[in-house]
């Protein structure tokens, strides 16, 4: 199952970052925002921070919250 998910993320979606460890790579919320943006659900993706800092995680998940409600 994990292999199928990694193939979808890396070969079909072609995210900006090659995903190798789903939990670690998605921890900041940036890649989830990127997926939602590509599916036209995250219109403020330009405001996301591509960083693993605590501030970036807080910002990214605050931006994701309304979309995920």
From TrEMBL:
Domain CH-like: 5-69
A GO CC term assigned to this protein in UniProt: cytoplasm
Protein name (Swiss-Prot/TrEMBL): CH-like domain-containing protein
Entry-linked PANTHER family: KPL2-RELATED (PTHR14919), SPERM FLAGELLAR PROTEIN 2 (PTHR14919:SF0)
Species per Swiss-Prot/TrEMBL record: Phytophthora rubi
Record-linked Gene3D superfamilies: Calponin-like domain
Domain of life: Eukaryota
Pfam families with a match to the protein in the record: CH_2
Transmembrane segments: none
Entries under InterPro entries matching the protein: CH_2, CH_dom_sf, Sperm_flagellar-bone_growth
């Amino acid at each position: 199952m994990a292999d199928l998910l990694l193939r979808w993320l890396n070969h079909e979606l072609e995210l900006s970052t090659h995903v190798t460890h789903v939990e670690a790579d998605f921890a900041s919320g940036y890649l989830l925002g990127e997926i939602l943006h590509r599916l036209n659900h995250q219109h403020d993706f330009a405001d996301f921070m591509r960083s693993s800092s605590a501030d970036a995680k807080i910002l990214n998940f605050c931006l994701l919250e309304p979309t995920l409600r």
